[in-house]
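Let us work through a complete example step by step.
Step 1: write down the sequence.
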Amino acid sequence: TPSPKATPRPSTPSAKPDDSAAVTALRACRAKVKAADEVLDAARTGMKHWSEHILAQTDANSGAITVGKMEEIFDRTMKAGDEDEERYRSAEKGYEREKGSRREVSGASTQIRQQLGRCAERQKAQDPVLAAADDGMEDWITHLGDMRRSEQGKIHNPEQKWLATWRAAPKNIDAYDEAADAFSAPRC
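Step 2: predict the structure and record it as tokens.
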């Protein structure tokens, strides 16, 4: 009896690229972007309060508002400041913990490559806003600390310290406003 012949199977190339590394990279990139968005959200609130605080002194000096109104604004923004500092520091820590990067992953499908590209674009667009937010929020947080030390009698001539802070603040507030206004990036 003749031996049965095995029917050869046609070789089938893999129809899909191996996306496992790319999907992992995309998840990490999205987590990093989300954490950065949380930092920017916290900074937006904190920088609004810091700007109002600085503007109150400017407006009182020009006579646009009374000293009493300035003090009301100072009190309101200082009370909000403690929460601003806590939210910002917490968001920063979350951002620092995330390891997502803008790296490309070989072997990714077109769809995943495009999503990684959008994610990388958003990360890159976040960078200047994050840097400006960090400078501005550091000013606000430093001032909040100065006010706490002043209340404890640990700052000699607190009015002089405040006026120096007030004069210097617009540089970082303006840089933050400019960076935030210029921010434009796709969601990922």
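Step 3: interpret the result. The radius of gyration is 26 Å.
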